[in-house]
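Issue 218. Parser rejects a valid record. Input:
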Amino acid sequence: MRPNRHGLLGRIPEPWRRYSGDVTVDADGNVLYFGAQLSEEEEKYAVLACDLTTGETRTVVEVDFKVGHFQANPVRAGALMFCWETGGDAPQRTWFVKGDGSGLKPLYKETYDEWVTHEVWWGPDHIIFTIWPYDENMRAKPHGIAEASTATGPDGAMAILAQYPAWHTHGSPDRKWALGDDFDRNIWLVNVAARERKLLTQGHNAGEYKTHPHGTFTPDSRGLVFTSSRDKVENVLYVPLPEWER
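Output the parser choked on:
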């Protein structure tokens, strides 16, 4: 289906309009992935794909939990990460499936007492995420900004890059840096090789808005963009990495 003058690429059939989560576009730009609840009476959900050339929508996979946080691999087409969405601590947060519906599996297989959240692809074969220390017991265990290899499977080793109560995180394309915000709306920069954490910018919580910075590195790995309510309005800001960090 060619886009018309209004930009229409396809129509979602009625049974799939109970949307769940957000949308993401495949690395080759040909497929849009999203989720839906299949029945109002049952906990049955599906990951769906819309072909952006033909407009055809198809089922990728059905699961028995609420789906969300869809992220197509930014490098490898046909590779999709999504989450078990609970609004809190899921029994198994991160999931992977191929675009053809095969290969459904946990990406990082968490233990029963880990609160994994805010996972992001970090190149073709790694993810970066946070393990939230929700009580004093968990603060005594490994937590904070973590990474795991998807090439080694769900039981592969997890590494903590910075141990502190991090919330959102992201990794630079050159794999030298990681970042994480916190509930005080500060952004921390992490030297991955040295496992060193430094405060990059702070004070992004002001006025009626409680904006999460949710930082993202630029493609050249030389700066990051983030949201801020520092000036008592919602803004998108950019900060370069300090010269001594490049």
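Fixed in the parser; the record now loads. The chain has a mean pLDDT of 89.
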